User: Fold these one by one.
Assistant:
Number 1:
Amino acid sequence: PGRRLGIPRRDPDSNRLMPPTAHIVVDASVARSASDPARHPVTVACLDLARLLESKTCLTGALMTPALLEEWKRHASRHMTSWLVSMEQRGRIRRERDRNVSDLRTAVSMVSDPGIRVALEKDLHLSEAAIMHRVPVASLDDRQRRFLRELGEEYLAAGRIQWLNPVSDSK
């Protein structure tokens, strides 16, 4: 993820730190898996993403909605709870309200496979935030990514969501 997000954050004229210009939705699956010390490859990759977003040279912050924050409260590691507070204090978190994307919800309700429909509904808040605010999603859930791509055949915006898995997409 560093190649996509590690952009210098200093104003070339004043040498002052600049606020984030881009944001990413960080799913609770990443927040749960990122802990310090990191030993397992999944933990290392999630922690690397968190550290990258936190670094002074990165222009990308995190986008947080109330639904996502509730999910984080239930699942985030202690390290990521502290990370969120630190990012908030440094102005690196963009707070947005939850917004329903009715076209997306209609498309999901029409999925014939109940297992896929339930999976899409479970993380609908991630997809809605990504569509409404035109931001990518960092998540370990590759099934959700695949289901959204398939749904994209019926609802184009779902297929256009940029989905980043810190483990498999970091190479």
Number 2:
Amino acid sequence: FVKAGGGYIGIGAGAAMAVEGYDDPTSALFIVDGRVLEPQNMDRGVGQVQLSIGSNPSHPILQGYKNNLTVNYEHGPVILKAENPVIEDFDAIATFSSDVCENPNVIRGIMPGKAAMITSGYFDGRCVLFGFNPETTPGLERLFAQTVMWAAGIDGYTITPKPQSINQMNN
């Protein structure tokens, strides 16, 4: 599907499944040239994490967002490049700038500077991977809609934020 021009959006485990697997069952998809850092340490915890907009702040997915974002994180993968010569390199359009580590059995401090939001091509298709949870983060509704449009190959769109009600503006 993706190879023929479709789109793939992976969040959390869905992101981990799209990269190079760490065992046979997790190696079936591999459509993004990445690998999970410390897969045994994905049980990092739940909380808010800081992101920095990465190397491509003008990417259509990021339209309307600048600098740093605070997002919800729930045991997401930390993804590094796998350096597979057959698959296109990914672009980290946002990176983690803080760490979540509630579990005392996992390595602390590995998240900052690593990819948090990835875009990539796969033959004629497009992929977006999230190491955090945009679908549960208030204020990222526009970003998520822009992700769907980009992954679907729809370019040149403008998503206008919904106007706030008077009650929301006064709070």
Number 3:
Amino acid sequence: TLPDRVADFKISLKPDNTFDLGNDPLVAQPQTTADIATPEHSDYFRPDGSRIRVETLRFAQDVKAYEVLSLFAARAKAQIAADYGTAGFQQGSEIYFFRGPRLIRLRSLKGEPATLPAFAQELSASLDKGEADTPPLIKHLPNPDEAQKSAVFLHSFAKLDKLGLQQGVFT
């Protein structure tokens, strides 16, 4: 479960079992039981009116959370870094990161988006760290520190076309 307080934000909406992805093929059609995610979201506010939505997908395995993070990063053309959680990225007024078996998306609903990084770091520290590492396969890529920034990691798949990937596997 999510904490009642993060930094100077307090939870205002108790967890709801939704994660607004519509029919996103990244999570809508699970291939194995490890692909099935449990969604949850909560809103946090502080007295100045700032509001942050925390959406989580909890998977059976850490590697699946990392897989979906890497697919979202590729779609956003963003680079993954260790700035948030175990790994994540910021895109505008949203931060995506994974920590243990959870993929987390933070969205600034009201107030200054500049509060998101500190919020992400404190929230991450309160969550189960799981294996606390990226998948081992990523570390075996040539120049792994650079490769992790843009590598798409697939734990399992049936067809790549649903994922919107246009480049070859070894480009």
Number 4:
Amino acid sequence: AKKRPEILRSNERITTEDILQFENVSDIVSFIADRKISELSYGGLRETERFIKDRLGLELFDNQKQRELLTILVELRNIQAHNRGRINELFLKRVGDHSQTHFKFIKGETYQADFDAIIALSNNAIKIAVDMDEKIANKFRLPRSEFKSLYSKLRADREARLKRMPLPHQP
């Protein structure tokens, strides 16, 4: 947002009191960006996906499987934090039809992800983040850091590991 503050353009209001606490426009842009990030974090994955598509013209996910796995990761985090890991109706509604995955969720039961599931879900989240970073950098012609060659090597190594990784199996 600092390089392209226009992506924050909206009809949202900012008070004069808020504006007057800053010394320069850069601080205002940072304030608005932080506020939007906070808002998106409470709006859920769908709201974040919609923002990225509407404001950046980019797709957050390359395919439906990525969307399903990231949704499962986010919702597993939520039930661990707010429901002691117990699967409830809200979880099942948000996760939706997960028939394409090897996860088995049963209402009322406690779910504990095993190591393979954690790795698969984490790798999916990392891939989405890395891909989005590249899409944004390419679209807005943002310079890459001096670590690009290391980054490329790490990504190639990670992709090779992902291809060897089995899908999670739940008993």
